[in-house]
Amino acid sequence: MSIRRLLPLLCTVLALAGAASARATTPGANGRIVFASGASGSSELYSVGADGSAERRLTWTPQGEQAPAWSPDGTRIAYESDVSGRSHIWVMNADGSGQAEISPPADSLVVDADPAWSPDGTKVAFGSTRAGNWNLWVMDADGSNLRQVSSVFGNDPAWSPDGQQLAYVGSTAIGVVNVEGSNPHAVSAPGSFASGPSWSPDGSKIVFTRNNAAGYPGELSIVNADGSGERQLTSDGLSNARPSWSPDGAQVVFQRTSTPPFSWSLWAIGPDGTGLRQVTSTSNALGPDWGSSQVVPNPSPPNAPTIQIFSPSDGGYYFPGTQALAFYTCSSYVTFIVSCTGNAPSGTQLDLTAAGTHTFTVSAVDGDGRTATASVTYQVLDLTAPRITFRTPSDGATYDLGSQVTVDFSCDDPNGSGVAFCFGDRPNGAPLDTSQAGSHTFTVRTADNAGNYREATATYNVVEPTHPPSIVISSPADGAAYTLGATVLASCSASSKLVACDGTVADGAAIDTGSIGTKSFAVHAADANGKSASLTNTYSVIYAFSSFGTPVSASGSIDTAKAGDAIPLKFSLSGDQGLGVVTRATWQPASCADWSAQGAAAAGRVTLSYSASSDRYLALADTDSRWKKSCRTLDLELADGTHHTVHAHFTN
Q1: Which CATH architecture group holds 306-380?
Q2: What is the CATH number of domain 471-542?
Q3: What would you report as the CA-atom Rg of the chain, rounded to the nearest whole angstrom?
Q4: Which CATH superfamily, name and number, covers 387-463?
Q5: What is the pTM of this model?
Q6: Largest CB tally within 10 Å, which of 10, 196, 258, 357?
């Protein structure tokens, strides 16, 4: 029942603050929500995605439409319209096209309202005053076979999912009656006025609205289909009305406001009272019905902009890579054009890179907000055969006789119509024929969906297997140590032609000993069959360290060290190598009998100096006075990584 019909009855039934919408929820996937809104000045129908996106206006009439209801298959919408001066039942397609009245002829004062589809989509139930009072009626979806369901007062019917019953708004409660008219009975408990019933998709429950103390819709309630277990769904003190169950049964959409009877918007909530969320902010969104349609409509309103697409031509054919410009216009006989946009700006190059069917769409918006969309399709011809790529065998490759080689090739058709077939002498993953020595060929053939054909052949050789060259590096020896600045000549040989000897140092030339550290020396060799081998030796360059001088004995010990006094250690590195040659010094307690370690090593302190006249370093190693009558081993680590030790016997 609409607000227009309720206003004369406001003193007795202030039940609705917006358009009614009878619902027979069909189980399925959640689709779009259809609703009425007066945002444009008159009540018009809209649809919107379940998340509030992609809102579309569906009707443009000077009269008004309301109480929309989805057909079970989501292709049509039944609604009430007052085009004839009184509300009658109409049906239209989901995009607003094909509007047609289906109310059977009646007296001019008769009102038909609140349509509800049967679950099989063949019938429509509605409320009507045809019998002098509000009763439920049923007709076929084309308006034929009209019959009265019952003489009981009722309107705003909702069809049960099994098609056997109708819920309705009675004079005192939400009622349920069998479709043939028997057993009308109340299912809502006594209380404030109840309206807007909607069945759950499984047919077990009915959601509806109860009025508040001010006579406006108040909170939503849910009751079992047999009338038991009524409970309140919302409890926030706002006005909530016109609930409609989602096809998957997990949510209920409804209209909601804090200032009834104005400023309604759509909200959704779970049947357990959780998950409250706003769906739309559209002004005065009324009477939602949640359907299963996933299609976003592109309605064509009256006096919408006119779009003419001159290029590309609809159904035209174009050669790939050629020059062709997009050209289109948008115009309006009633107002100015705000925007006129296509896949490419008018006057710019069309996309002719990829073969196949293309769609070119132009959208226009005029100064009154009306929109229009036009599309053409065109073909880009495919004149190029697919490409063939050989990985194995590659053209000119050589393989050993009897070797295990796997065939690997591919075909692709970039910007084409797609590869129709691609096959070689042997399938991908199969073993390549290496059973006989000599020259062999492998051919791949392919074609695309436009019939362009290509074949390509790779030639490969199968040879008797040979061993890779053997390499011997005599100098530098692997792991050898050479003193800084020493002359060491490279010496390397191979069982086949020598290709390189470290790339820069030839056989017989001096290797690098100009700096301390670990170095490498590499040799590469290859034979006439393409077999190759590499060998790398590593060597180190160290200081030319002389043994420690006095007071260190030839055996590397000091027998009369004095604890607390610095021990002078003298040595030569064959020249001044800088004062950073000693990188670490440690002292470790040791046995005076055999110098075996007796404890953990600890860092020591060494002061280093160099005398050019004697070409000797002096390292003063600090000692501790507490070391009296003990033995310790001093370890000097040099920058070249070598270690040099001294055994000290502290006598006092």
Answers
A1: Sandwich (2.60)
A2: 2.60.40
A3: 48
A4: Immunoglobulins (2.60.40.10)
A5: 0.50
A6: 196
